Predict the 3D structure of the following.
Amino acid sequence: FTVAKIQDNGSLTIESLKLPEILRKSTLHARDLFSLALTSSHELQEDENRRKMRRRPQYHGSSAAGRTPAAILPRGDEIVLSFGSIRALIGKDSGMIFDAHVPGTKLLASDIASTFELRVAEEK
C-alpha cells in the first residue's frame, strides 16, 4: 500500500508498506483496517481491467462501484477514518493517509502537511 505519512511537525513521507508493517506501526488489529477496503496500486489496475470488460454500466456511489461507507472508528489512541476516497489512520503524533499513489490523495496529504508545518512555525 502506498501511504502518505504526516508527522505532527508537518514532515511528509510517501512510503510503500505491507499490511504487517502497518499493523506494527499502530496498535490496531487487522479487522480495523479491513473496514477501510484498502487497495494497492496493483489491485486498482486489476479493478480497472475488470470494469472495462463489464457490459452493464456501474453508477457512481452505488455499492457495485466499490465505495466504502463513511466511518470514524476510535480505536484506543488512534482513529480509523474513511470518507469518500479518503482512508486514514490518525494517531497522537502522526497520521497515515492510504492510497497515496492517487494524485488527489497525494495533494491532500501535501496540503495537510503544509498546514501543520505553518502552525508549528507560528508557535515558535
Q: What stands out?
A: The chain is about 35% helix and 25% strand. Residues 3 and 98 are 5 Å apart (CA to CA). The mean pLDDT is 80.
